[in-house]
């Protein structure tokens, strides 16, 4: 009831401790707050082709609505970390990965390019 937005969802509001919560769809846009590039990844990222020669980027994105979330950052040169800029406008990109007979959605963001 206080209007606070939280990710991930929770049973009790962190701001007012209220229990009357509802789902809110967010716009999927934000900006890069901080990041790191990773050369030695998890088994899943190694399986996806990332390694010491092909790094990937993970960052914290502040959504336009306020909440912050950790996600993979696509469309940046993780092998050249100084080329990645804090404050870069981003939009959500859902990646799908097959796990047996089911698909798993992975959260990622990529820079917004002007068309």
Mean pLDDT metric: 91
**Rg of Cα set:** 16 Å
> How far do the termini sit from each other?
39 Å
Counting DSSP H or I runs of 4 or more residues, the number of helices is 1
Helix residue percentage: under 10%
Name the shape in a single word.
globular
**Percentage of residues in DSSP E strands:** 35-45%
**Contiguous uncertain segments of 5+ residues:** none
Q: Got a strand count?
A: 5
Q: How would you write the strand order of the largest sheet?
A: 1-2-3-5-4
Strand and helix order: EHEEEE
The main sheet comes to:
5 strands, mixed, barrel
Structural class: mainly beta
Keywords, please?
115 residues, mainly beta, 1 helix, globular
What does this structure look like?
- Helices cover 4% and strands 39% of the residues.
- It is globular and about 50 Å long.
- The protein is mostly beta strands.
- The longest helix is centred in the middle third of the chain and has 5 residues, at 43-47.
Characterize this entry briefly:
With 115 residues, the chain is mainly beta. It is 4% helix and 39% strand. It has a five-stranded mixed barrel.
Please render the helix and strand layout as text.
Blueprint: E1 29-38, H1 43-47, E2 56-63, E3 68-73, E4 89-99, E5 102-111
Parallel strand pairs: 3-5
Antiparallel strand pairs: 1-2, 1-4, 2-3, 4-5
